[in-house]
Amino acid sequence: MLELKWDAKDEALRISKATRTRLLEFNKNLSFGEKNSGNTIVQGDNLQVLKSLLPFYRGQVKCIYIDPPYNTGAAFENYNDNFPHSDWLSMMYPRLELLREFLSEDGAIFISIDDTEQAYLKVICDEIFDRKNFVANFSWRKRTAKSDVPHGISQDCENILCYANEKFLGQVKGKERKYYSTEDFLNRAWRFHDLTTQRTATERPNSFFTIVNPKNGKKYPANPLRTWAITEETFQDYFKANRIIFPGDYDFLKIKKPVLRYWKDDDMRKAGENFGMVAASTFLPAEIGMSQDGTKEITEIFGEKKFSFPKPSSLIQHLIGIATNTDKIAIILDAFAGSGTTAHAVLKLNESDGGNRKFILIEEKEYCKTITAERVKRVGGSFDFYRLGAEITDAEGKINSSVTFAQLANFVWFSATKTPYLEQKNSPLLGICKGTAIYLLYNGILKDKSVKGGNILTKKILSSLPQHDGEKIIYGSACRLDENFLEENRITFRQIPKELKL
User: Fold this and answer.
1) Considering the chain, what is the average pLDDT of its residues?
2) Are residues 285 and 165 in the same domain?
3) First to last CA, the chain
4) Were 24 and a residue from 249, 386, 387, 497 both cysteine, which residue would form a disulfide, CB within 3.0 to 4.6 Å?
5) Residues 154 and 211 reside in one and the same domain
6) What is the arithmetic mean of pLDDT over 61-69?
7) Cis omega before residue 466 (within 30°)?
8) Which of 497, 399, 364 has the alpha carbon at shortest distance from 49?
9) Pick from 362, 389, 416: which residue ends a domain?
């Protein structure tokens, strides 16, 4: 496997692995709207926040979009974009490794970048996400050509690298074409064909008629040099079968010409169980806007330019639309949230198609409160606001006294199963995973209060636990049972925090 090496790579990975997991502290005053809406904003260093979120969201995120520093050498008002090259790589690599763990089996990640670091980003992404999972390099035109540029060449486009897991590729990428996902068309991948022929009115008089849209009465007369491909009688049959769409029926189709299109039986057969509409081109359409549109958008929200070069929400909305549909809740994650454009895009897309997408934004800077969160408020979004709290373990390596049973249970379950803890039981038996029961002895969780030393595994405490006839993993501060007894009772004891692998 091809691997990119730089002097500080090993040190960057060592620091990343040594970064201790921290609690996330809910801030009621900075939260907004509906409580527990499923939308989350976290202020803090994204490496630490990602490590803290992983036990809750590993394998649960459908779409990740990030717009990291491009390392252009500039110093913008809101963020630094000037790193030594090796420092930029050391910053990006461990964060991308963590982001990979969040992706669901059918998830995809989109990463904006310009030509400064694009080649290096592609190599480390091939290493982290696997080269075979590379989908495309989308080209986004961010501005019209400038004349006062170095070398007389205006770099008007940026790159958006896309990688995806296997089930995403099976869902979106067909044998010949890639399709946008949606539920709007009966879960099928229909292709569109003009409802016209090359025949004239003289050649096909039965097809030379005016079609009237039954929904609004708008008329579409046939072209005498290019008649309809169907007769007036056939049109009625097609319309009743819901096989004809008119201009304006669906916003995302962007049909500008007064041309009718229809579903073709052969296309329905070829499409199989995939679904979607239009082939997803790597050259992004002009309708999604340029950098100036992102600036105009945020200026309209705040009444002044609040952020340097924000992306237009329509760009991210377009990308999220490729990766998600409306059939279930989809989590969208942005670890370099900036001005909050991703949340804005999620809200707009949900409004347009009735979807149930939720966002997680991570931003370290203080403007996380004054710009990121404030923007989401102003465009009508609800969210829970969190900040990084205490580390799970203190300086002596002990569980921090402020950690509650419920908080620790999430990390214990994740340590044992590498899956998020969804049951949230207030019981020493956290749950059963693949036939193995996971227990936690901590903070007086035992219901029998007469049993002392409830964090230490003894025969008496074992007898007071909910029973399970099978393999058991028990986490606690210490164990007073010998190895033979543990083996006979199919018990694996793990001492916390020493054996709490996060």
Assistant:
1) 84
2) yes
3) 27
4) 386
5) no
6) 97
7) no
8) 364
9) 389
Confirm if 367 and 78 have CB atoms less than 8 A apart. Answer: yes
Q: Residue 245 in 3-state DSSP?
A: strand
Asked whether residue 98 is domain-assigned, the answer is yes
- Report CA-CA distances (Å) from 500 to 100, 326, 447: 21, 38, 24
Among 7-11, 213-217, 252-256, the minimum mean pLDDT is found in 252-256
- The CA distance from 95 to 13, in Å, is 10
State whether residue 173 is helix, strand or coil: strand
Domain final residue, candidates 346, 364, 389: 389
Is there a single domain that holds both residue 197 and residue 312? no
More confident position, 273 or 131: 131
Which of 169, 328, 353 lies closest to 253, judged by CA?
353
CA–CA dist 63, 322 (Å, integer):
9
d(CA 446, CA 164): 44
Same domain, 32 and 166: yes
For residues 164 and 205, state if they share a domain: no
Which residues, other chains included, contact 119 with Cβ-Cβ below 8 Å and sequence gap of 6+? none
For the chain, how many residues are written?
502
Two tokens, residue 292: 């100036």
Confidence of residue 431 (pLDDT cuts 50, 70, 90): very high
Three-state secondary structure readout of 259-301: CCEECCHHHHHHHCCCCECCECCCECCHHHCCHHHHHHHHHHH
Contacting residues for 130 by C-beta, under 8 A, at least 6 apart: 163
Whether 383 shows a pLDDT value over 90: the answer reads yes
**What are the C-alpha distances in Å from 33 to residues 51, 189, 220, 383, 476?**
27, 38, 47, 7, 39
Instruction: Say if residue 75 is in the same domain as residue 153.
Output: yes
**Full domain range(s) for residue 258:** 193-263
Strands 383-391 and 244-245, sheet pairing? unpaired
Burial class (CB in 10 A: 0-12, 13-18, 19+), 360: buried
The edge-to-edge listing of strands for the beta sheet with 330-334 is: 22-32, 383-391, 40-43, 357-363, 330-334, 61-66, 103-113, 157-164, 134-141
376 vs 371: CA distance, rounded Å: 9
Longest Cα separation, the chain = 98
CA distance 152 to 171: 43
**The CATH number of the domain where 321 resides is what?**
3.40.50.150
Indicate the SS3 state at residue 319.
helix
Beta bridge partners of 41: 361, 385
Torsions phi, psi for 437 (to 5 deg):
-85, 135
Considering the domain architecture, whether residues 172 and 204 belong to the same structural domain is answered as no
CB atoms within 10 A of CB 226: 16
Task: Count how many domains the chain has.
Answer: 3
269 belongs to a structural domain: no
The pLDDT confidence band at residue 167, using thresholds 50, 70 and 90, is confident
Residues 443-447 have a mean pLDDT of 68
Q: What is the average per-residue pLDDT within 459-463?
A: 92
Reported confidence tier of residue 3, pLDDT bands at 50, 70, 90? confident
